[in-house]
Amino acid sequence: MPLYMDRHEFEGAKPEDVAAAHLRDLDVQGKYGVKYLTYWLDYKAGNGFCLVESPSKEAAETVHREAHGFVGSEIIEVEWGAVESFLGNIGDTSAAQRPAEPVTESAFRTVLFSDMVGSTEYTQRFGDDKHLEILRRHDSIIRESLASAGGREVKHTGDGIMASFASVARAIESAIDIQRGFAAHNEERPDEAMRVRLGLSAGEPVAESDDLFGAAVQLASRICGAAEGGQILVPNVVRELSIGKGFVFDDRGEARLRGFPEPVRLYEVVWQA
Length: 273
Hints:
37% of the residues lie in helices and 28% in strands. It has helices spanning 15-28, 57-67, 80-87, 119-126, 128-149, 168-188, 215-226, 236-241, and strands spanning 3-9, 35-42, 47-53, 74-78, 109-116, 152-156, 161-165, 196-203, 206-208, 211-213, 232-235, 249-255, 264-269. It is elongated and about 65 Å long.
């Protein structure tokens, strides 16, 4: 398939804005047989370049236009050797995941934290063996949802799970599916009901040793801690990035979260049918 590079003028754009635009490209590209591989940015100069495999220039531009409206000022056909000799190994770009290989995902991630409310009480109430059985059931509900939504389990936190998604919409869909899964479980087993709270955030976390770090991760964890059992809470960035996807949000006002100097406005995702 032909390889193209387009040029953009990003004057005034923030890094997270460009990362979010690239993420939207990834959501749309399959409709047109296009694969956006990576991007390079010079924020001081306000310039950016996208590298894309596409059946035509028009198809690549159509993806940009439909995904976010930021169509490049020009687009040219290029060769791999020329690209890497001029701009370096694409594995070193901000969107890279694996060294020396074409990148198919943005560094932008939606991070999800779950927490089972009152987990320690289960041990006192049911004993260790029964508590572990309930915890395994808890893990199964969440992991099944992650698998169906394309989420990646980053780590188990003892009474919850941290996960990441390349798509904001898929992360919210998974969160809704998780809460509905627990609602079904609680209806079937009222004596062993579990109440789980979920918090999401989005940004460009730092990846190291299969774990994720950074402000986006910390924010998702703090938001999860601010939620009540059965709630899904998200910050405004998640709400804005999912506009047009059909989700319903209730404004829960501003909250003071530990480690964040400014109040964070939170929204609850309405998931009950």
